[in-house]
Amino acid sequence: MREVLSSLLMVFAAALSACAPMQQIQPLAYPPFPAEEYAKLQRTGDAQVSGQAFMKTRGGDVKVGAGSEIVLIPVTSYSKVLYTAYLSNRPINTPDARAREFTIRTQADATGSFIFTGVPAGSYYLGGEVTWEAPTQYGLSKQGGFIAKEVTIAPGSKNTFMLTK
């Protein structure tokens, strides 16, 4: 009888803890879109940015960003909020669509290598996704994720970056 009562109390306590409100992390909010700051950004240039997107698994295997979209996002007061969210692993609200117009995009090849040409000089967040699936006891689980770093591009330069975490 005592064991049954103890088991019931444990089930009841588990049920109550499941009802307890979970603390949610509030997403970071973007400030108002600084149209004047973006209007000053150059849209074309003569620099080149190339590199490879990859991650190493805990077991030491190298996984590449084959076919992933690789982006160059100009560093602005607005995009710094996105990078802060990335660094702190926090969710973020949806950005203003106007910011996307200034993002330079390319696609990584089968080896995770990428190249941008005609890049304007300036500071950028270089980013992309490297993901793969790994078996777990519950089936396949997505591994890896988005990686980014801040880079500075000089006029007419040829830059090579390893995009990894």
Structure description:
This protein is an alpha+beta fold and 165 residues long. The chain has one domain: Immunoglobulin-like, CATH 2.60.40.1120. 22% of the residues lie in helices and 40% in strands. The protein contains four helices and eight strands. The strands form two sheets. Strands 1, 2, 5 and 8 form a four-stranded mixed sheet that branches. A hairpin with a 5-residue loop joins strand 1 and strand 2. The chain is flat.
Largest sheet: 4 strands, mixed
Poorly predicted sequence stretches spanning 5 or more consecutive residues: 1-20
Distance between the termini: 56 Å
Mean pLDDT: 88
Quick one: CATH class? Mainly Beta
CATH architecture: Sandwich
Q: CATH topology, anyone?
A: Immunoglobulin-like
Summarize the structure.
By secondary structure, the chain is of the alpha+beta class. Helices cover about 20% and strands about 40% of the residues. The model is unreliable at about 1-20 (pLDDT under 50).
SSE map:
Layout: H1 2-19, H2 35-39, E1 47-56, E2 62-64, E3 69-74, H3 79-88, H4 97-100, E4 104-107, E5 113-119, E6 122-136, E7 139-153, E8 158-163
Features:
single chain, 165 residues, alpha+beta, Immunoglobulin-like, four-stranded mixed beta sheet, four-stranded antiparallel beta sheet, 4 helices, 22% helix, 40% strand, flat, disordered N terminus
